[in-house]
C-alpha cells in the first residue's frame, strides 16, 4: 500500500543541514514541512553522523559554544519536533522526480512506501565514505578492515572495540579523531598513513589527535596491500614521489590487527543526478547558485551533499541558507537564470561554492585550494577585493562573505577567484 502526502517543503536528510533547514523553514512561516531520514545505524535516531561523534568541538560558530556531536544534534532535533515538522524516520528516499512545478519523492520504510509531493525540496542527504578499493588498496579481504565511520559507530554507539593494534589510512579529520579515540581506549596506533606531502585534516586535529598522543604521521606514503587471510596481520607501506607514484625499494611492513580507512567522504548525489541536476566534478556535489538552488527549479542543496565541509557549523549554516531560499520561492519570489555571474577558478583554487552568482542576495563563498601556501592573497578580481591570508591548506575551507551591493557595479558575467603570492 502506498501512502500519499503533500507538503510545501520536503527535506531529505536528518543530519545537521537537514535539521537546521527544517527548523529555519518553519520559523520563516513555511506551513507544511516534511523531513525524510534514514539513519545509518540506529533506527529512529535523528542527527546523521552527529550521534556517534562524542568528542567536543562542535557548535562554536553556530551555537556560540562548544558542544559534542550528540549535544549539537539534540538541540536541533528538539526544535524540529517543537515546531511541528513532520518527520518520517527509517525512511529511505529511493526515487526523486522533478516536474518543474513540483517535486515527487518516493520513500520506503518498514511501514511501507510513501509518495511525497512537494512544492520545493532541500536535498541534505550528506556524504558516504570512500572504501579501501577506491583508493587502490589490494590484498585479501580479512576481518579487521573498517572505514573510519564504521569504527566510530562500533565504539561510540555499540561499545565494541574493533582492534588493538591499528593503522589508519588517510589523515582526514575523521581519521585523526579515530586515531585519538583508539589511543584513549588503550589501543596501540602504529601510524597514520597519508598519500600527500601534507596532512588532510585541520591543524588543530593534527596537534590534538596525533602530536599530543605521540602517534606517527607518515606523509608521502601509501598502503599498497593488506596482509592476512582471515584476520588483518599487517599492511605494506611504500613511499611515493612527487607524482604520487610508489618509489621502488621503500616498501616496509607495519604489523597490526586493524586497518581503518579514512580516505575522505563523497557527496551522495545519485538521486539528484538521476533527476537531472548538474554535478560539479570538483566538489562532487551539485552546481548551485547563491540561493543554493540546483539546476532543477525549486530544488536546493545543503551540507555535505553540496560540498564537503570542515565544520558541522557550516553544514547547518547552509541548511538555514537553503531554507531562506525555499521560503523565498514558496512566497512567490523568482531566482533568475539569466544575467548571472559564473565563478571562475584561478590560480591555486580547486573548488568554489556556489558556482553561480545572481547578485540578488548576500552570499558566502566556500573555497578550497589545491596546495598549501604561505603569505598569500585571496583575490576576487572583478570586485577588486583582496584578503591577506598567512597560510592556506587544502584541508581548511576558506569562507568569504560578499554583499550584494558589491556585485551591483560588476558588469562582467564572471567572478574570478585566485590565490596570489605576496
Q: How is this structure best summarized?
A:
The chain is an alpha/beta fold and about 425 residues long. About 20% of the residues lie in helices and about 35% in strands. Strands 1, 2, 5, 6, 7, 8 and 20 form a 7-stranded mixed beta sheet that branches. Strands 11-18-12-13-14 form a 5-stranded parallel beta sheet. It has a 5-stranded mixed beta sheet with strand order 23-21-28-25-26, with no helix packed on it.
Structure characterization notes:
It is built from eight helices and 28 strands. It is of the alpha/beta class and 422 residues long. It has three domains: 1-129 and 264-335, FAD/NAD(P)-binding domain (3-Layer(bba) Sandwich), CATH 3.50.50; 131-263, FAD/NAD(P)-binding domain (3-Layer(bba) Sandwich); 338-422, Immunoglobulin-like, CATH 2.60.40. Strands 1, 2, 5, 6, 7, 8 and 20 form a seven-stranded mixed sheet that branches. The model has no long low-confidence stretch (mean pLDDT 94).
Amino acid at each position: 500500500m502506498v501512502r500519499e502526502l503533500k507538503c510545501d517543503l520536503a527535506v531529505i536528510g536528518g543530519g545537521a543541514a537537514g535539521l537546521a533547514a527544517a527548523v529555519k523553514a518553519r520559523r520563516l512561516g513555511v506551513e507544511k514541512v516534511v523531513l525524510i531520514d534514514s539513519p545509518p545505524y540506529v533506527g529512529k535516531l535523528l542527527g546523521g553522523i552527529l550521534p556517534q561523534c562524542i568528542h567536543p568541538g562542535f557548535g562554536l560558530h553556530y551555537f556560540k559554544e562548544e558542544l559534542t556531536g550528540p549535544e549539537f544534534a539534540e538541540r536541533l532535533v528538539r526544535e524540529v519536533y517543537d515546531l511541528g515538522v513532520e518527520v518520517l524516520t527509517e525512511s529511505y528516499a529511493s526515487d526523486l522526480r522533478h516536474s518543474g512545478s513540483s517535486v515527487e519523492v518516493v520513500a520506503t520504510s518498514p511501514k511501507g512506501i510513501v509518495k511525497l509531493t512537494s512544492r520545493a525540496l532541500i536535498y541534505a542527504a550528506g556524504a558516504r565514505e570512500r572504501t579501501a578499493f577506491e583508493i587502490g588498496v589490494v590484498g585479501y579481504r580479512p576481518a579487521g578492515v573498517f572505514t573510519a565511520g564504521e569504527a566510530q559507530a562500533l565504539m561510540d554507539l555499540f561499545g565494541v572495540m574493533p582492534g588493538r593494534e591499528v593503522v589508519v589510512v588517510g589523515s582526514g579529520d575523521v581519521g585523526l579523531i579515530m586515531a585519538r579515540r583508539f589511543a584513549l581506549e588503550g589501543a596501540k596506533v602504529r601510524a597514520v598513513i597519508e598519500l600527500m606531502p601534507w596532512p588532510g585534516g585541520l591543524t588543530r586535529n593534527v596537534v590534538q589527535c596525533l602530536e599530543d598522543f605521540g602517534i606517527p604521521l607518515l606523509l608521502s606514503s601509501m598502503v599498497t596491500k593488506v596482509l592476512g587471510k582471515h584476520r588483518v596481520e599487517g599492511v605494506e607501506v611504500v613511499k611515493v614521489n612527487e607524482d604520487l607514484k610508489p618509489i621502488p625499494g621503500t616498501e616496509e611492513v607495519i604489523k597490526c590487527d586493524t586497518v581503518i580507512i579514512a580516505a575522505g567522504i563523497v557527496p551522495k548525489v545519485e538521486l539528484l543526478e538521476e533527476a537531472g541536476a548538474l554535478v560539479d566534478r570538483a566538489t562532487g556535489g551539485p552546481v548551485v547558485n547563491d540561493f543554493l538552488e540546483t539546476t532543477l527549479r525549486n530544488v536546493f542543496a545543503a551540507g555535505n551533499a553540496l560540498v564537503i565541509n570542515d565544520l558541522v557549523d557550516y553544514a547547518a549554516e547552509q541548511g538555514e541558507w537553503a531554507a531562506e531560499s525555499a521560503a523565498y520561492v514558496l512566497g512567490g519570489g523568482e531566482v533568475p537564470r539569466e544575467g548571472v555571474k559564473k565563478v571562475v577558478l584561478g590560480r591555486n583554487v580547486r573548488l568554489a561554492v556556489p558556482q553561480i552568482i545572481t547578485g540578488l542576495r548576500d552570499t558566502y563563498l566556500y573555497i578550497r585550494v589545491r596546495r598549501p601556501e604561505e603569505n598569500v592573497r585571496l583575490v576576487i578580481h572583478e570586485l577588486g577585493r583582496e584578503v591577506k591570508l598567512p597560510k592556506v591548506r587544502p584541508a581548511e575551507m576558506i569562507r568569504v562573505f560578499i554583499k550584494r551591493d558589491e556585485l551591483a557595479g560588476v558588469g562582467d558575467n564572471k567572478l574570478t577567484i585566485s590565490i596570489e603570492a605576496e
